[in-house]
Amino acid sequence: SHWLADVIVHLVVNVLLFILLPVPLVAVVFLHQQEAQALTLDRDRFFTLSDVLLGPDPSAPNWPTSHIALQNEILLYCALAFYGVLVLDFGCYLLEHFHILPTANYEVMRAFKAKADKANGKDTSYTGPIGWRIMFTFVGFRYLLHKLFAAMTTFACVATMGYIGLVAVWASLAAIINPTRFLAYTTGVLSSVALVAGRYKSITDLRNGLREQVRAVCLLSLVMRLMASSLLVAGEGD
After folding, report:
1. Which of 65, 79, 179, 230 is most buried, most CB within 10 Å of its CB?
2. What is the spatial distance between Cα 183 and Cα 175, in angstroms, rounded to a whole number?
3. For the whole prediction, is pTM greater than 0.90?
């Protein structure tokens, strides 16, 4: 029962962690989509994120308010794919820990040994709880799934930080079009940047001050040791 409780706690913590991972990105996607649709009512053209990156394009069409921006659609599908891979990965984890499928590394080692014994003409009765071909297929699937899950987790973290920054710049520029609606976003962005810059400067100053103090202490200790050595040599000479 203790082992089962550990498995359940480990599973619940990891599932909650990875379920919450794409939530900030999805929230920013919905926020941008909502504000972009509202912004189309204030001007004659949809103000896109490509305008922030590449500059405004006068030939761009006037998109309807029901239009979903391409990058928002891609990110939402990526979030759904992430959850699908998450379900598969933790499903394989449950199959292994509840012995519905054997632990991959142990069974592969046993299967390789059985094949080697059979090739050398030794009598072996081990065939594994499932066929070795199925076992190798499962191991390969688990390996690819693990790598895919790690890559998608990295992408989710990078995309979240990058997209939040991009939408923040977009909202700041959108304040020129509709100051009443977007001035609050601009204020929040500038306040956040100022806070981060101030904290970074404080940490940098603290680090530099601590470095100078350590350097001064080390230099003083070196001078004291040299003076003690000089007095010791002078005393031996007398």
Report:
1. 79
2. 5
3. no
